[in-house]
Amino acid sequence: MATQQPDGPFVDRVVFITGAARGQGREHAVRFAEAGADIIAVDLCEQLDSVAYPMATPEDLAETVALVEKTGRRIVAEHCDVRDRDRMAGVVARGVDELGRLDFVLANAGIMPAPGEQGREIGAYTDAVDIMLNGVYFTVDAALPALLANPDGGAIVITSSAAGLKAVSTDLATMTHGAAGYTAAKHGVVGLMRHFATSLAARNIRVNSVHPGGVATPMVINEAMAQFVTENPSFGESQMPLMTLPMMEPASVTDAIMFLCGPSGRYITGAALPIDAGLQLR
């Protein structure tokens, strides 16, 4: 019996996703593939000195590839640093050459360099800004030629954070270089989102940002973060949403992104969408 093929707005579309080896990025890749899209995926797959928890590995990205291919869709995946604009452009070009087009860009790659002794080093600040602000700009810039060549337009969704609407730090103890960089970068990409939304609207390319609270991924669920919260109760309290819901799973972020990329979001651009159960109101 033939496998039933998906039918919907993402069939035969192509999505470029950064930070795709695990967590939110993997969820986005698999869900879009299940909905009929092909994927261009990148991830650093290396450890940074400024990050206190284990980062994604080549094996993690290989698992994402396997999960996408299991859906029957195609994926072009490479190890790539979002801080390297030229390399990013090369990956996008290779993906478009193989898959034929580009419709959506999900600038998802991120780190949480606030906890641990690493977070108190100035390198935690520069890495945060380089990856989550400059890296977002490089991601969009590298993808623009292919998006502009698409007569159907497209959509860009930037993953910011509740920290793009309020500060991560709560007092002197949590005022690490990494926390400052995370907050600055996540606020900064809102400006980039509005810059691109205004500039690309006439080409029917919608640009929005999503602002999740704590999401159950390895970036949040790890020993370094647990110790940081234990040592700084005010930080943990500040991250509690107003609604009494379980900790958010990556699928909830993907739901919002698919809404913004699909026909239901066709009139939405320039929006900063909180997905945080009221955390930004605290």
TrEMBL record:
Alphabetical list of SUPFAM superfamilies matching this protein: NAD(P)-binding Rossmann-fold domains
CDD domains: SDR_c
GO molecular function: oxidoreductase activity
Domain of life: Bacteria
Keyword Oxidoreductase: yes
Keyword field: NAD, Oxidoreductase
Annotated Gene3D superfamilies: NAD(P)-binding Rossmann-like Domain
UniProt keyword Kinase present: no
Family designation: Belongs to the short-chain dehydrogenases/reductases (SDR) family.
Protein name, UniProt field: 3-ketoacyl-ACP reductase
Organism: Mycolicibacterium obuense
Organism ancestry: Bacteria, Bacillati, Actinomycetota, Actinomycetes, Mycobacteriales
